[in-house]
Amino acid sequence: MFSIKSPTLLVDEAICKNNIRRMKRKADRIGLQLKPHVKTHQSADIGEWLKEAGVRAITVSSVTMASYFAAHGWSDITIAFPVNPLEADSVNYLASAVNLSILAADLTALTQLESTLDNEVAVYIEIDTGSGRTGFPSTDLGAIREAALFIRKSDKLKLRGFYSHPGHSYACRSRQEVERIHEDARVQLAALKEELQPDFGPLMVCMGDTPCCSVAERFDGVDEISPGNFVFYDLMQTQIGSCTPADIAVALAVPVVACYPERAEVVVHGGAVHLSKDTCQLLDSTVYGVPVSLNGEGWSAPLQDCYLKAVSQEHGILACTKSVAASLKPGDILGILPVHSCLTADLMMGFTTLNGTKLNHIRTSALYSHV
Amino acid sequence: MFSIKSPTLLVDEAICKNNIRRMKRKADRIGLQLKPHVKTHQSADIGEWLKEAGVRAITVSSVTMASYFAAHGWSDITIAFPVNPLEADSVNYLASAVNLSILAADLTALTQLESTLDNEVAVYIEIDTGSGRTGFPSTDLGAIREAALFIRKSDKLKLRGFYSHPGHSYACRSRQEVERIHEDARVQLAALKEELQPDFGPLMVCMGDTPCCSVAERFDGVDEISPGNFVFYDLMQTQIGSCTPADIAVALAVPVVACYPERAEVVVHGGAVHLSKDTCQLLDSTVYGVPVSLNGEGWSAPLQDCYLKAVSQEHGILACTKSVAASLKPGDILGILPVHSCLTADLMMGFTTLNGTKLNHIRTSALYSHV
């Protein structure tokens, strides 16, 4: 592999493109539009891989991210974050440039925004199907109908349908649990659609989360899906049951900086500012990442009995066996499969493919080069 | 206050400068050299505030950070991270430009580095005084003496003394516990100095962690301190007992985007990509931050009975009272005191003072402006 001297986020293009193709094929087979959530990679370059697979619409989590992808040729963008009325000017500008959809999670915010719009914007009413984060509870038909009526009265807003992120699927620890969450959310959304469609014309239902979209097969009443993490997957998704370790498309390459065979530990340059502080439970341990060996073609399966047990700002402490610790030396490079690839990508602000090509990221779009 | 539309990291210059002056006065009073760890702010602008207070030497956690501060006029820099032999060229270059000190935490790594050096580098032997991260155990006199002998034999390396980061102080939950950790580490280091000084000439002892440096008064045998977090402090430090909430010098300004009085919750635009996923325990709850009100002069004390209970990538869920939730509306701006200011600063890549001046950060040094 090309020379690596400091923490570097590697992406295995073949695994990533395979993850994209698999989800696109599933969406096509079931008759869903795949609108991937690009917050995971935040990369126009990886966006091109989505286009190659036939993806035409994307989902983002901020106005800034929408602007970045609009500048890179995307013309159908959903901002899957409650509209911030303070950003009305940017929303208005974007709506003049692309086919823009936003989420209404609070009628006051939508009213404020509407009063300043010049251009037409499509609106999904966000539904809380159990995650307890944002959106109207699916049981609050009165408030949902009130929002739908407000949108219908406006000549700037166009009701597109319902959006829900069943993020409580992240608490699942088996495919069966994920399927239960999915089915529960799906039924709520399908019922809403059936209830309001007669009065409000054709309505779309969009569901977005990687566990449900990876595991579930029944999508009756659903029209669109917007998973994000699936392009890379990560350890958390293996814990949930969404993927296997072989599907993880990113690994943080880290230099070994100190070896302590007597502690059965190795310290690497790879900490919270590279991986994030997200953890998951694997093998009864709290884990910040698991190591793999790097080779010319990519990386190995996770090294047995080894895991990143702690991170500070720049340090990572790898618990391993005494023999693994004795076999490593400072200057060796290991890969670390991240717990949460979205946060690792955000921190690393870019990717390097296995042949050394650098891929961009929204946070480096104004940088001359990767630091 | 100036207009804020999206997540913005505010720094209260008066609080920050006061934190700096207080630590500098303490160091002067006890007769210690203060070499602040600038990983917390990573900002040349805030570095100027250190210079104003009379600080002449700094500590950093990477070669990249050392290069950045060297380019901003710092000439006495300690890289408090185990030397990575792959970065020997950069270390060598830096050593030609500034008075450079490095840490030896592994003799193999030091040997590799030494073989490639052209310029003189000062070396601290890193001592593990109980944190279990990096360094030679203080009890391993044989290995420590071997490292000292290796350094003495080299015409490139110069033994400066011992460095220790008693990071296990972060597990403390009272000033008494911090004092015990400090005293235990201090005694280990003072004994080492006494043991090796006769053979290896004058040796410095440098201790670096904000809890010990904030709380302890006894530093016999210690020559230098390198705390970092104290310039900003944060919620974790209040939990440890290092500071009060009034000493916290940074707050993340976040727009309210959705209000749910019936849930007694408010959702803000401020999540893991702004604050990090670090948590602490306050009021028997796991907390990702606590809210404050912003006003013309800065911010209020923490709002009673309110805390950030969850973050996802961009969302923060604020648990509050029904009346607080009902009193807020989308577009309002709150401040969030961070759990771990070092990680928040790293993520936000810059600071804004209360009069709207933007301060730089190593990660934005090549950006035209803050995103």
Question: Can you characterise this structure?
Answer:
The structure is a homodimer of 371-residue chains. Chain A has 371 residues and is an alpha/beta fold. Chain A is 33% helix and 26% strand. Chain A is built from 12 helices and 21 strands. In chain A, the strands form 3 sheets. In chain A, strands 1, 11, 12, 15, 16, 17, 18, 19, 20 and 21 form a 10-stranded mixed β-sheet that branches. In chain A, helix 3 runs parallel beside helix 4. Chain A is elongated. Mean pLDDT of chain A is 95; it is low at 367-371.
Question: What's the structural blueprint in terms of helices and strands?
Answer:
The structure is a homodimer of 371-residue chains.
Chain A: E1 8-11, H1 13-30, E2 33-34, H2 44-52, E3 58-60, H3 63-71, E4 76-82, H4 88-97, E5 99-104, H5 107-114, E6 121-128, E7 136-137, H6 141-153, E8 157-164, H7 175-200, E9 204-207, H8 210-215, E10 224-225, H9 235-240, E11 250-260, E12 265-269, H10 272-275, E13 280-282, E14 285-287, E15 289-295, E16 298-299, E17 307-311, E18 315-319, H11 322-327, E19 333-338, H12 341-348, E20 351-353, E21 358-359
Parallel strand pairs in A: 1-20, 2-10, 3-4, 4-5, 5-6, 6-7, 6-8, 8-9, 9-10
Antiparallel strand pairs in A: 1-11, 11-12, 11-19, 12-18, 13-14, 15-16, 15-19, 17-18, 20-21
